[in-house]
Amino acid sequence: MKIKRLISIIMPVVLGLAVGVGGTIGVQKFILPKPAVTAQAATTEDGPVVEIGEFTLNLQGGAFLKTQIAVVGTDKKAETTIKSKTNFIKDRINTLLSSKTLTDMQPQNRDKLKKELIAQLNEVTGNKIQDILFLTFIYQ
């Protein structure tokens, strides 16, 4: 008799929690608006953010790197230049990153890597890039 009473008390609580959590997730997923800003179309105060793409390459010494890169332009006009030079930008990124070792990919060396990439990409774009964004960065 005590088990039936205990179940009759616990079941409504568990059912109420399940409905509450499920309802919250459902509202967030299906009813609330999703943010309309993407990395490719977003702009920062400093300039437009242009997604360049994903790179999977071998590093010196046999390791590999998989990263997704976006660049921040210097002004709104820079976006057009960056997009028109995308293939040249990708070539420079591939060339520079594949010349690096696993040590060069470590977090403490990431700022140096960014500075090298910015210098290389500014040669291609005529100084239209002010920052590099690593959207993903996986190395092994």
How would you describe the overall organization of this protein?
- The chain has helices spanning about 1-30, 80-85, 85-100, 110-125; strands at about 50-60, 65-75, 130-140.
- It is α+β, with helices and mostly antiparallel strands and about 140 residues long.
- The chain folds into two domains: about 1-35; about 50-140, 2-Layer Sandwich (Tetrahydropterin Synthase, Chain A).
- A three-stranded antiparallel beta sheet has the order 1-2-3.
- The protein is elongated.
- It starts with a helix and ends with a strand.
- Mean pLDDT is about 85; it is low at about 40-45.
Any descriptors?
elongated, alpha+beta, 140 residues, 22% strand, 4 helices, 3-stranded antiparallel beta sheet, 47% helix, Tetrahydropterin Synthase, Chain A, 2 domains
Short description:
With 140 residues, the chain is an alpha+beta fold. The chain contains 4 helices and 3 strands; from the N terminus they run αββαααβ.
List the helices and strands and how they pair.
Layout (H helix, E strand, L loop, with lengths): L1 H30 L17 E10 L5 E10 L4 H7 L1 H13 L11 H16 L3 E11 L1
Antiparallel strand pairs: 1-2, 2-3
Helix pairs in contact: 3-4
